[in-house]
Design a protein that fits this description.
Elements: H1 2-33, H2 47-51, H3 54-67, H4 79-103, H5 111-141, E1 147-152, H6 156-167, E2 173-180, E3 189-190, E4 193-198, H7 202-209, E5 213-216, H8 226-233, E6 239-242, E7 255-259, E8 262-266, H9 275-309, E9 315-321, E10 327-333, H10 357-364, H11 372-378, E11 382-384, H12 391-397, E12 413-415, H13 417-420, H14 429-441, H15 445-457
Helix pairs in contact: 1-3, 1-5, 3-4, 4-5, 9-11
């Protein structure tokens, strides 16, 4: 019955797509030639010429949309991934259509019609898909259009899967039971779901329970049994998903990549690659130049005050660690007396006698950090990122705090997620690394802008800076 429902929904979606595609094509013609939107220089071509292209358009779009998998079940996929697939499919379809009309040289078609058609296609189809998926999700939340699943495995990974399925009733998956590799577990309730039998009985339970999805979540040491599971499934028409038990091994930005058709599981990665790196670097350069220009008068006053009130250089250079463990010399306004040994290998503490009166003001107002905008411009640092630490501190702390070294998967920053949440200065290192790793895992330009805004909004004066 569910297979028939699925075919009905796919057919309904296909018919709706075709209506939208044809309507968009005809409306593009109207928008180009029957409105004042764009001036007409060569006269208005007859509508019938464009109507003749409707059949090729339907064939091209139908074939390419099928090829891109836009009619397969997408219960787990996000709206964003579907939008991306629609955009790619429409772009390829437009290019094929242009090639077809180029061969058919009897008439010259308007390029603006193609442009309008492409834009309206992506917009209208995306809205239609969003409405369609949301309607289905609403029905599934109400208990309709469900798919039935078996989970093979009873460990922590199966528990994780159950928790997420329960948290998302809109995907319409109902877990009928678990299959175990241990006979002693049969009949018991594990994670609130009954263990129906052994893993090698999966074929029988698929038939008896009308299963649509089989989710393999075996423990790492049991992965050799996956072949047995697949053999027992045989030719049954079910969707098969494998969730590898490497969850606890993944650190930051883990995921599945594809290399020339070969799936590769990434356990640890940096978000700074490709366009992400270009965008963040461009943002850093622009922002640092603006910041230097705005704060130049403040830095000049600070430099004069330091020079007039204490002996020694205006700037202080200290070795810190940044992206991929690269060492650099971080700039700060000097806030300590040179005679008493400025911030070398001794961590600053509250009431530190080495700090000058001017230095205390600079630290409390964070003015001592302003020269780091030059570090950003140079490329040693970023505006937003985990705060850099001294190299000897990193060597010492990385043995005591698991995951501490992972903060260096992102370029060090002037401000960061930990700092805007109150974890700066002499605060708990474990909490700071927790916030730093969250930032790396969830990095986006929007998050950077949010952190900059929070840094300004909450003020630059902080009780933990001294």
């Amino acid at each position: 019955m569910l297979k028939k429902h699925s075919q009905f929904f796919e057919s309904l979606l296909f018919i709706t797509d075709i209506i939208i595609i044809v309507t968009s094509w005809l409306f593009s013609y109207y928008l180009r030639f029957h409105t004042a939107f764009v001036p007409i220089d060569k006269g208005t071509p007859p509508l019938r010429i464009y109507i003749l292209l409707v059949i090729p358009i339907v064939l091209i779009w139908g074939f390419i949309f099928k090829s891109f998998g836009l009619y397969r079940p997408r219960r787990i996929a996000s709206h964003l991934s579907e939008l991306f697939d629609i955009t790619k499919a429409c772009l390829v379809s437009i290019l094929v259509l242009i090639a077809v009309t180029f061969v058919y040289r009897q008439y010259e078609f308007s390029r603006l019609v193609f442009l309008f058609f492409g834009i309206m296609n992506v917009a209208a189809l995306s809205i239609e898909r969003w409405i369609f998926r949301e309607a289905l999700r609403y029905l599934r939340k109400k208990g309709h259009n469900l798919r039935y699943a078996l989970i093979i495995g009873t460990g922590e990974m199966s528990k994780e899967i159950l928790t997420r399925i329960e948290a998302h009733p809109e995907i319409g998956l109902k877990v009928i039971g678990l299959l175990s590799t241990n006979k002693d577990e049969i009949g018991a309730n594990t994670h609130g779901i009954k263990v129906l039998g052994m893993y090698n009985e999966v074929g029988r339970f698929i038939k008896e329970k009308g299963i649509d999805h089989v989710i393999i979540a075996l423990a790492w040491e049991d992965h050799g049994k996956v072949i047995d599971v697949l053999k027992n499934i045989g030719e049954e028409m079910v969707d098969i998903k494998v969730v590898p038990d490497i969850y606890e091994l993944a650190t930051i930005r883990g995921g599945i990549e594809e290399f020339d058709g070969l799936p590769i599981i990434s356990l640890q990665d940096s978000p700074l690659y490709g366009w992400n790196m270009v965008i963040k670097r461009a943002f850093d350069i622009i922002f640092s130049v603006i910041a230097i220009a705005i704060t130049a008068p403040v830095m000049l006053i600070a430099a004069i005050a330091i020079k007039l009130t204490s002996h020694g250089p205006v700037l202080y250079r200290q070795e810190r660690m940044s992206l991929n463990g690269k060492k650099f010399m971080m700039l700060k306004f000097r806030s300590m007396n040179v005679a008493e040994g400025p911030e070398k290998d001794i961590l600053t503490k509250k009431g530190d006698t080495r700090i000058t009166k001017i230095g205390s003001i600079l630290r409390k107002t964070s003015v001592d950090e302003l020269p780091q905008f030059f570090n950003v411009f140079k490329g040693d640092m970023s505006i937003v990122g985990p705060r850099p630490e001294r190299t000897w501190v990193v060597e010492q702390v990385k043995r005591d705090i698991p995951g501490y070294i992972l903060k260096h998967k992102m370029k060090a920053g002037i401000t960061g997620w930990a700092q805007v949440n109150g974890w700066r200065g002499d605060t708990d290192l474990k909490k700071r690394i927790e916030y730093d790793l969250y930032y790396i895992e969830n990095w986006s330009l929007l998050l950077d802008l949010k952190i900059i805004w929070l840094t300004i909004w909450k003020g630059l004066i902080n009780k933990n800076a001294y």
